[in-house]
Design goal:
By secondary structure, the protein is an alpha/beta fold. It contains 20 helices and eight strands. It starts with a helix and ends in a 7-residue tail after the last helix.
């Protein structure tokens, strides 16, 4: 999970601040020393850390406590505001040409994720009503064209390619002509990368830029390379001119320092972050939401976005009706679990709920892996027949033994699931009764 280490350490610092009735200048400076160490360990650029700590300290020592906030909360508020400012203040959206097609050049080093990011972005643009075209301009890397074709097929996006005999500049020009004939209003040019920045690479990219005049040049950077990501961004921007950054593999970087450094150093906005393998996992970057996640304050808006993308609205309404009428079955329970899994790791989703910070989650879970527990439950239900899922009351000893053997669990595991399911149904029934009671002007049980 991105920023996991930084988030945990910052929450520990702020937990100590909240416990104090009032803060002295010494308290603030001591807390800022801990914040500084946490940021440096998260691989945030040293100069940025130094400036960040200076700003927060000056504001924390020189400000009056706002009405309704205790001193600790005031410091957290200041850190939150400065983090948002560090990452760009507001969301930076893609821009589109006044006259189509809109051309985006995807640039970056080899292995950063240009090809897959191009496909994911094209897929999202198609969902928004655009008609995108992917262009294969990496004529050097073995199987690069084939990889783009596979990505295009996965997202149902056409791919324009002319093999590896013509120059990328010529292919780019031909792609513009082809897009005009096919009425493609967006073109994403997947350019070649190198293992390191060199003069030959930059000259080729400059030639493509001059030939197609892109609306935006999007630099794809691997977040897991840390400070190298910042160096790469600086070089590409100074030699080519970058309009926005796509930060990939952020889900695999527990430090996350590149996200805090790259925008501040280059003064170029992060437009998207890669948080997984699926198309929806290329997420628009919201500085305020990311700051909220880092400080353990949740991210409800992103959670809502994930729900809307992955949960079928009609199916959700049907499920709600079943819950109200107490017709909720193990089949429905399995379906619900499978929809939740589409939204990503359960621990990450829990982290988006305000108040459910990393420290609280670790204490509550006590070493339990939610994903593994969900997989166990799924395996047990899938080992049942449709009749058994619809009516668990028929599950006698021999049936339970067959189910346990079928999924590699024990009879005790099967019994535990059935007990939890019955308790959940009872809780749903009580909630329904309470809602009915409110409608009649009374509450049950009183």
């Amino acid at each position: 999970m991105a920023f996991e280490n930084l988030s945990g350490k910052l929450q520990e610092v702020f937990k100590q601040l909240r416990g104090k009735g009032r803060l002295t200048e010494a308290d603030v400076k001591a807390a800022m020393r801990e914040v500084k160490i946490a940021l440096l360990e998260a691989d945030v650029n040293f100069k940025i850390v130094k400036e960040f700590i200076k700003k927060v300290t000056e504001r924390a020592i020189g400000t009056e406590v706002l009405e309704g906030l205790n001193p600790g909360q005031q410091v957290i508020k200041i850190v939150n505001e400065e983090l948002i400012d560090l990452m760009g203040t507001t969301q930076s959206c893609l821009t589109f040409a006044n006259r189509p097609p809109t051309v985006y050049m995807m640039v970056g080093l080899q292995g950063a994720g240009k090809t897959t990011s191009s496909g994911k972005l094209a897929g999202q643009l198609r969902k928004q009503g655009r008609n995108p075209l992917l262009v294969a301009c990496d004529v050097y890397r073995p199987a690069a064209i084939k990889q783009l074709q596979v990505v295009g097929k996965n997202y149902n996006i056409p791919v324009f390619e002319m093999g590896d005999k013509l120059s990328p500049v010529e292919i780019s020009k031909k792609a513009l002509e082809y897009a005009a004939e096919q009425h493609n209003d967006v073109i994403l040019i997947d350019t070649a990368g190198r293992l390191h920045i060199n003069e030959e690479l930059m000259q080729e990219l400059q030639d493509i830029k001059a030939a197609v005049k892109p609306q935006e040049i999007l630099l794809v950077v691997d977040a897991m390379t840390g400070q190298d990501a910042v160096t790469v961004a600086e070089s590409f921007d100074s030699q080519l001119g970058v309009d926005g950054i796509i930060l990939t593999k952020l889900d695999g970087d527990a430090r996350g320092g590149a996200a805090l450094s790259v925008r501040s150093v280059t003064n170029k906005p992060i437009k998207y972050i890669g948080m997984g393998e699926k198309m929806e996992d290329l997420e628009p970057f919201y500085p305020d939401r990311m700051a909220s996640r880092i400080l353990g304050m949740g991210d409800v808006l992103s959670l809502i976005d994930k729900v809307q993308q992955n949960i079928d609205e009609q199916e959700a309404l049907e499920m709600q009706k079943k819950m109200r009428s107490n017709e909720f079955t193990l089949e429905d329970f399995l379906s619900q679990m499978q929809q939740i899994k589409k939204m990503g790791p359960l621990k990450d989703l829990m982290g988006m709920i305000p108040g459910m910070n990393k420290i609280d989650m670790d204490a509550a879970l006590k070493g339990v892996d939610p994903a593994k527990e969900m997989a166990k439950t799924e395996a047990i239900i899938q080992s049942m027949t449709k009749e058994e899922r619809a009516n668990p009351a028929i599950l006698n000893g021999p049936r339970k033994k067959r189910i346990a053997n079928g999924c590699g669990r024990t009879i005790a595991d099967v019994n535990r699931l059935l007990k939890q399911f019955e308790e959940m149904k009872k809780m749903m029934k009580q909630m329904n009764n309470m809602q009915k009671g409110r409608k009649k002007g009374r509450l049950p049980f009183f």
